[in-house]
Automatic annotation (TrEMBL):
One of its GO terms (molecular function) is kinase activity. This is histidine kinase. The chain crosses the membrane at residues 46-64, 100-128, 135-153, 159-181. Residues 397-416 are annotated as: Disordered.
Length: 416
């Protein structure tokens, strides 16, 4: 989704690059930022540079006119002043590449050349736009400090000394303030760009995390639902394979269990796929089992030929939270599935006890099987999923061999 948004906004920005300064284009355009080369001037840059150059030339011409009216100056000094003014105007084109060097160089030049004053002010503005305030403070401070000496050396014939001094100081302050405003506006645009990128990155990471959690939840649900059914198929098919001479009633009963388990597994798979297509959460797609469904689960296992002893001592079965009851159901379901797979023919003991405030304890145990047991492959993913479910519910789960050689699963879940 983020890639599509970038692909949609990139052409819009590319079509309006002429409107932005080259420094912003270099920062905002990913290809320009990765190239490592200096940003090329945009149309806006050329317009602004020409305007600055023409302004410097205009101020220089005004200064040259004032020099021509002053007949006390020798012709050589007037010519040198105009040459310095012309060079200063030409140097305005370097304000983007070397703003600090140009501003420093124009300080002494503007002090001795009246026609260089416009170029000096433009260089000071460029310095305020492209460099931090400490550089602007030094150069602007030197300008202000030299102002009284400049007007003492070259007094303005049309204005008093104090008025000329105040006017130039105000002009320098206005130019510095304007340049700092332009700089802060550019930094604001860049900061908004960075915030937008961070927001897109965080949104993408949150989406990926949500997808990963959804995949894990779906994987747990499919394992819990289908493993129970498929284990019945495997156990009864294995019994038919190892006992082809079994009585007809046993064969018919095993075939019926296989058929029913296959039908229910297919139905469960259809329901899960329907949830995926609808985009709903794990809990919204179909009715979730609760602690009250333990009796049905045990009856189903007994019908499949498993001896199950259910010891249920719950103070308030209706008051068990739905998430806790669902977790307890899945733990018992996985315990019965593992017992059928790895210890067929044994008696499985299921114990559920607890009450509000003290928590819910779920225990599934089976003794060691007798004789040779057909090997049923397993990767232990069911027990890992049960541990994750217990932790998500705020409880704990322990599993492992018992002292008599059997296997047990014990979980403690919070209640209240």
């Amino acid at each position: 989704m983020t890639g599509d948004k970038t692909a949609q906004t990139a052409p819009v920005f590319a079509g309006r690059r002429w409107f932005f300064p080259s420094a912003l284009v270099h920062e905002l355009a990913p290809d320009a930022a990765r190239s490592g080369r200096r940003p090329r001037r945009t149309v806006r840059d050329w317009v602004v540079d020409f305007a600055c150059f023409l302004l410097a030339v205009g101020v220089s011409l005004l200064g040259a006119e004032a020099l021509s009216d002053n007949h006390d100056l020798p012709p050589g000094l007037v010519t040198a002043d105009q040459v310095l003014g012309a060079l200063s105007c030409a140097a305005v084109w370097l304000r983007r590449r070397w703003p600090f060097a140009l501003a420093v160089a124009t300080v002494p030049v503007s002090f001795v050349s009246e026609t260089s004053g416009g170029a000096a002010l433009i260089a000071l503005f460029a310095l305020a736009v492209h460099r931090p305030f400490r550089y602007v403070a030094w150069v602007g401070g030197v300008h202000v400090a030299l102002t009284p000496l400049y007007f003492w050396w070259r007094p303005d014939p049309d204005l008093p000394y104090l008025a000329s001094l105040v006017l130039l100081v105000v002009l320098v302050g206005a130019i510095v303030g304007w340049g700092m405003f332009v700089r802060s506006k550019r930094q604001l645009v860049l900061s908004l760009r960075d915030r937008a990128r961070r927001a897109e990155t965080e949104a993408r990471l949150r989406a990926e995390q949500a997808q990963r959690l959804a995949r894990e939840a779906i994987a747990r649900e499919m394992h819990d639902v289908l493993a129970h059914r498929l284990t019945l198929l495997s156990v009864h098919a294995g019994a038919l394979e190892f006992r082809p001479d079994a009585p007809r009633e046993d064969v018919a009963r095993a075939a019926g269990v296989i058929r029913e388990s296959a039908h229910e597994a297919l139905q469960d798979l259809r329901e899960i796929i329907g949830v995926l297509r609808a985009g709903d959460s794990d809990d919204a797609g179909r009715p979730q089992p609760t602690l009250a469904a333990l009796g049905t689960l045990v009856a189903e296992s007994r019908q499949a030929g498993v001896e199950v002893v259910l010891d249920r001592r719950v103070a308030d079965p209706a008051g068990v939270p739905a998430s806790v009851g669902r977790t307890a159901y899945r733990i018992v379901q996985e315990g019965l599935t593992n017992a059928r797979k790895h210890a067929p023919g044994t008696e499985v003991t299921v114990s559920v006890a607890g009450g509000p405030g003290e928590g819910l304890t779920v225990t599934v145990r089976n003794p060691a099987p007798e004789g040779d047991v057909p090997h049923v492959p397993g990767a232990g993913q069911g027990l890992i999923g049960l541990a994750e479910r217990a932790v998500l519910a705020g409880g704990t789960l322990e599993h492992g061999p018992t002292s008599d050689g059997g296997f047990g699963v014990r979980a403690r879940l919070p209640w209240g």
